[in-house]
Design a protein that fits this description.
CATH class: Mainly Beta
Pfam families: cNMP_binding
Protein name: Cyclic nucleotide-binding domain-containing protein
CATH architecture: Sandwich
CATH topology: Jelly Rolls
Largest sheet: 4 strands, antiparallel
CATH superfamily: Jelly Rolls
Helix content: 25-40%
Strand content: 25-35%
Order of helices and strands: HHEEEEEEEEHH
Shape: globular
Length: 154
């Protein structure tokens, strides 16, 4: 069974923290098939999807990249920017034209450090996303490679 999707930014952050964070957003768009980042690359920004979809992929040796999850409206793309050494743990490619809010990681980390309440809200939001993504990765990899799929108990 798949875990429910984490709360989007609108539900996860209190209104005052959400509006403060959005002051640092830049509106961007990407065509279908655009590569946002590669696994192992420098995590220097993140996005909140407004429209479209983004596949999160994990490299699997000797195989095609496994799609772990598709991120859609109001969901976070990228969590690696918050945790040193700031390196992407997955790759990301758009599945359709995407409009998103883009945030500079260095700026947001600095703002969060200066405002501990905002920092705590952002950390809870990103932490919830991280837990969900790890569960999704485990389930997807078991579906692809385990002898009995994700339904088997270990």
């Amino acid at each position: 069974m798949n875990a429910p999707a984490p709360a989007g930014m609108l539900q996860a952050l209190p209104a005052e923290h959400r509006s403060r964070l959005l002051r640092f957003a830049r509106e961007v768009s990407f065509p279908q098939g655009a590569r946002l980042f590669e696994e192992g690359g420098r995590a220097d920004r993140f996005w909140v999807v407004r429209t479209g979809g983004v596949d999160l992929e994990m490299r699997v040796p000797g195989q095609r990249a496994a799609v772990i999850e598709t991120v859609r409206h109001n969901e976070l793309v990228g969590w690696s920017w918050l945790f040193a050494p700031y390196v992407w743990h997955l790759g990301a490619r758009t599945t359709s034209p995407v409009r998103a809010y883009e945030f500079d990681a260095t700026t947001i980390r600095s703002v969060c450090q200066d405002d501990p309440a905002l920092g705590a809200s952002v950390a809870r939001w990103v932490g919830g996303v991280l837990v969900h993504r790890l569960r999704s990765a485990r389930t997807r990899l078991l579906d692809l490679y385990a002898p009995y799929g994700s339904g088997s108990l270990l």
